[in-house]
Write a structure and sequence with these properties.
The protein is α+β, with helices and mostly antiparallel strands. It contains seven helices and seven strands.
């Protein structure tokens, strides 16, 4: 089952596993309109950590190592809001070379403008505003960053155009997409139409 790198029209990217592109579109519809997304198969490195918001301690930290779990303590972290559900799981990437390679690969695939800008910073560190350069260099760095991010907003422009074009249409598919809140005909929608047509009794020839 392939893993897809999905770029939403905003500055958000996702890694989603699906059998094929049709299933991917149906899955993305659970979150938002997949009509504004671009995607490609991701075959790069993958390392994601899942952590629950609790810390581990010992009832006798100065003594010997715990011999049983009853000698351990578990306390919520300060940022835990008390809600016990799956959303309390924290998702992050570890600080290791393999995870850094993953983030670089995702960045290049989803945000090529920003990735190129960061490469330019590596070639010319004086452009980095965090190094406290001269004011004009700082402005140039911020302008370069803004330009890179605007370049990565091309999917947003395409999505807004698709919304505008859909609003001018009044055909069956367009009205269905408007009702479903999407800008593309999803595979599940087409399957639903075909199923409805099969279930509809044929009109009497008389």
């Amino acid at each position: 089952m392939p893993l897809y790198l999905v770029r939403w029209p905003t500055l958000v990217a996702s890694l989603v596993q699906a059998d094929d592109e049709e299933e991917l579109l149906d899955l993305l519809d659970q979150e938002a309109d997949p009509g504004g997304c671009t995607f490609e198969i991701y075959e790069g490195p993958l390392w994601i950590d899942f952590q629950i918001p609790f810390t581990i301690g010992s009832i006798n930290p100065e003594g010997p190592p715990p011999a049983d779990t009853s000698e351990l303590t578990v306390e919520a972290t300060p940022d835990f809001d008390g809600e016990l559900n799956t959303e309390m799981v924290r998702v992050s990437a570890p600080s290791c070379d393999f995870a850094a390679d993953m983030l670089s690969e995702v960045l290049r695939g989803a945000f090529p403008g920003l990735a190129l800008y960061l490469e330019e910073l590596d070639l010319d560190p004086e452009l980095d505003p965090e190094l406290d350069p001269e004011p004009d260099t700082t402005n140039a760095a911020h302008e370069g960053l803004s330009a890179a991010l605007r370049e990565d907003l091309a999917p947003m422009v395409r999505y807004l155009r698709a919304q505008s074009e859909l609003a001018t249409r009044d055909d069956f598919e367009a009205n269905l997409m408007k009702d479903m809140g999407v800008t593309t005909m999803l595979p599940s929608m087409r399957r639903g139409i075909l199923h409805a047509l099969k279930e509809t009794p044929a009109l009497d020839a008389d």
